[in-house]
Amino acid sequence: MSKLPDIGSVLDIKYGRDAGMDALLLHFMTENNLEYTIDPLKNASAEQIQFMVALREGTFYAPCSDWMFRKLLRSELSLQLREEYVLRWRIIARLVDEFCPDRYLRRRILTLCGYKFRKTLTAPIVIPSRLIKRMVTIFMTQSGLDDPYRERRKALNAGAAQMAASPEFDRLLNLCPDSHLACRRISDLRSELDFLELQRLLVVSTLAPGFGLDRALDSKNGMEAEIAACQTPFESLRHLLFPDSGPKLKILYMPDRSGGLVFDLLVIQALVRAGHRVVLALKEGFYFDTPTFWDHESDPALATLFTGARFVFEDRITKNGLLQILRENPFVVISDGSRERFNPYRVSVTFARAWKECDLILAKGERHYRRLILTSHEYTRDILCFFRDEGGGFHLDFKPRPEWVSKFGEGYISAKAESLIVQMRKAKAAGNAIMFYSAIIGSVPGQTKTAIRVVSTFVQHLRERMEGVYIINPAEYFEEGMDADDLMYMWEKVQRSGLLNVWRFQSTQDIEKSFELMGQKVPPVWTGKDATYSTGCTKEMHIALDMQKQQPELQIIGPDPQKFFRRREYGVGKFCDVAIDECLRP
């Protein structure tokens, strides 16, 4: 085996530089069951990961802290890493002992988990959170229990709800500050008071019943001292949420534990009153005392606090669908699709799209702090993480998104679409027919640049041959940093404008003609290809047929529509499509 290069910064670990390192990274991914190419139904694609993690080309991302990733790559069982593994074993052992009264079943589960545990200690490359996920899954499948902590979470929420309804809490939250607030306008004073309320709620939300909240209720000075100690990061919060001018934000809120969820919902109510829109992401299923998406159905303490919330049950919602829901509802609740710590490889499509469409990630808890702040990796959105350490100290940490990461908001993309629609109206008023040309752009791996040349060459050929036809070539409107979600959202607005007379889909003959015009033979990778090989074009064929029902005169030219429907949805954020056989799986 060749010697691996020294592992410096995790940002320097990349694919494609060293064959030995590539193999080790693939080993890491497969041992943690995170590799997309092996299990695309459970794991996120690289393009979906880039919705959340700001990655340069070739950069590798591991869902753990820097120090742990280095230890795992070297299979180095340090004392600290061993303690992390042992902690997980103790957690699963307590879980089995408490909820498996049958001695035989208890022994079988612990023995099976013990095999996994000892194997991990022998070759420590499994992330501890993935190990506990694996053992919890064994426990759930063997015991038949889907959520052993449901009643425990309800008790935590009931205690917190009782505390939140107490006169003491109301006094603490609404006590007027001693210092005089500067006020030139009433609106300034209102903003200051809203910000003060939010500060207090964030501090209190980290003190669930049994963790010091009862003591905090008796100490106004303690509350003010904690706020003063975090004044610098709170100024970042003020700048983000209460600017002097600018649009309100879309915020993705990631809670920590039950009990604290009651106060998280009060924080969300305060954010909504301030004009922001909030998406609350909960776990899909059992992850100890972490709140789940389904808790509101059986927990009366949460019923009133979720009043007015829009629950999204789809785990693969489209960009259009999500944006429409966010426009219509200031408070939206989704599942992150997982039963473990924050792990971009295992979150749902809905969560990934919510992350991408929001402006700020507000994450609570030390577990989120380790995954989001204690890593050299940056993320595609601003992150504000708040938690309370083991000593009881309150922390508020801000990590901005890197400047090189583009964010194409709904308004920007819509404006591009509207600009093109205006041009189409002018062309139609001048007596021109409007043609849209749907073609493969990135559906052949590694051939995006060639695909753009193929499309542009053929469209130019059509323009030279056809008189009085305004032809829209999507390749001419690509903008660096835009992904397939952005482009499909933009083009659907154009395609549903009702202005198209002809919708042409790229055929095999079109591709052959393009290479002929370029003076080249058709390469093997392009032989036999047409628009049916693009899941983006497949989505567009659905739109074309839908529009033809409304406008029977719309002409659709190209391959038989039935050939398109081997595919379901275009790959999430992908220019390179998922394979046909993946889409046919149940």
Detail the topology: elements first, then pairings.
Layout: H1 19-31, H2 46-52, E1 53-54, H3 66-73, H4 79-99, H5 103-122, H6 128-143, H7 150-164, H8 167-174, H9 186-205, H10 213-216, H11 220-229, H12 231-241, E2 250-254, H13 260-273, E3 277-282, H14 300-303, E4 310-311, H15 319-328, E5 331-335, H16 349-357, E6 360-364, H17 366-372, E7 378-379, E8 382-388, E9 394-399, H18 410-429, E10 433-438, H19 448-465, E11 469-472, H20 484-495, E12 502-505, H21 508-517, H22 535-550, E13 555-557, H23 580-583
Parallel strand pairs: 2-3, 2-6, 3-5, 4-5, 6-8, 10-11, 10-12, 12-13
Antiparallel strand pairs: 1-7, 8-9
Give structural attributes.
586 residues; alpha/beta; Rossmann fold; 3 domains; 7-stranded mixed β-sheet; 4-stranded parallel β-sheet; 10% strand; disordered C terminus
CATH architectural category of the largest domain: 3-Layer(aba) Sandwich
**Helix proportion:** 40-55%
Query: What percentage of amino acids are in beta strands?
Result: 5-15%
Number of strands: 13
Whole-Å distance between the termini?
A: 40 Å
Number of domains: 3
Main β-sheet description: 7 strands, mixed
* Cα gyration radius (Å): 27 Å
Major β-sheet strand ordering: 4-5-3-2-6-8-9
Low-confidence stretches: 574-586
Q: CATH H-level name of the largest domain... which superfamily?
A: Uncharacterised protein PF01937, DUF89, domain 3
The name CATH uses for the topology of the largest domain is Rossmann fold
Q: Which term fits the overall shape?
A: globular
